Amino acid sequence: xxxxxxxxxxxxxxxxxxxxxxxxxxxxxxxxxxxxxxxxxxxxxxxxxxxxxxxxxxxxxxxxxxxxxxxxxxxxxxxxxxxxxxxxxxxxxxxxxxxxxxxxxxxxxxxxxxxxxxxxxxxxxxxxxxxxxxxxxxxxxxxxxxxxxxxxxxxxxxxxxxxxxxxxxxxxxxxxxxxxxxxxxxxxxxxxxxxxxxxxxxxxxxxxxxxxxxxxxxxxxx
Length: 222
Fold this sequence. Notes:
This protein is mostly helical. The protein contains 8 helices and no strands. It has helices at 3-15, 17-34, 38-69, 83-115, 124-147, 151-173, 176-179, 191-213. α3 packs antiparallel against α4 (83-115) and α4 runs antiparallel to α5.
């Protein structure tokens, strides 16, 4: 990684530093609410989910869509970078912004389950899968942002990925080998867990490969 790449990544990280802080504080505050009782648990978990999803969308929108809309990326034309270089730097920059916040909020959710005696540790595998889903979800939104300049198409991607949260909760939560262990005192890492996790990893990897194969080959910055 050369000096120019490091500076451009650092520039994006600096511009979104407050977004990272707000997401972490908001997510941890939601988990603190979730630790207060059954009703507050539901409210806190909803807040945590909303924070994770919103954080990913905002990182992609501010880092790519807003920058493109405001023509702020035109400064790249004065630098010794190809469009492929620009796409690769954007991927690295926005991953470096999202992943630390995602990791802190994911680890905080797992820690809450481990520390709270009224919450069964059997929920940990499902929570890990949900965190993996958020990461895959972010990669899809980021992939879409790098591929299209259409606001309508980006809106459609955001709507579909948001709908995917509900589908994930109900579909994965209804898989018997996962659902049947929700109330267990210890986590169960069975085949169903590893299959779902493998699918999430595959989606994440594919979504990050597509910009290299298509978006990076365009000759314009629009």
